[in-house]
Amino acid sequence: MIKSLLPLTVTALLLAGCVSAPEVRAPARQPAPVERTAASFPPRPAPAPIRGLDGVIGKDANAIKRLFGEPRLDVVEVYGRKLQFVGKPCILDAFLYPERKGGREVVTYVDARRSDGAAVDRAACIEALQRR
Questions:
Q1: What is the pLDDT of residues 50-103, one digit of tens each?
Q2: Other Cβ atoms within 10 Å of 110 Cβ, number
Q3: Neighbours of 106 (CB within 10 A)
Q4: Strand order across the beta sheet in which 73-76 lies
Q5: Cβ-based neighbour number of residue 125 at 10 Å
Q6: pTM higher than 0.85 for the full model?
Q7: Domains, the chain, ranges and CATH?
Q8: In terms of Cα–Cα distance, which of 98, 96, 100, 92 is closest to 130?
């Protein structure tokens, strides 16, 4: 019986030599916590006025109504307001948002288009609506 176990034992030893030892890894180190402080960013500079829009951007609703008359639409939204003025040459949407929390609403953006939806130069639309 020992003679029959000998080939099995030799085969087992040979196979055992082929198996490598498990790799030993050092425990993963946690990086030291980084203290984060509030970044102090410089105040955002006001955007450069776009020629032709400077008479509208930054104005409140009353000033815009004095320029263009009563709006066709006056849509009050959750955080702002949209006034729409219509003339033969174009449709102008003026978007008003508070200057700061609790501040007065002023025009921050305007969009202009023709009645068929094609884009129009915003400054040209403002000028055309003021002339009527």
A1: 677 888 999 999 999 999 999 999 999 888 899 999 999 999 999 999 987 778
A2: 21
A3: 20
A4: 73-76, 81-86, 91-98, 105-113
A5: 24
A6: no
A7: 61-131 (3.30.1450)
A8: 92
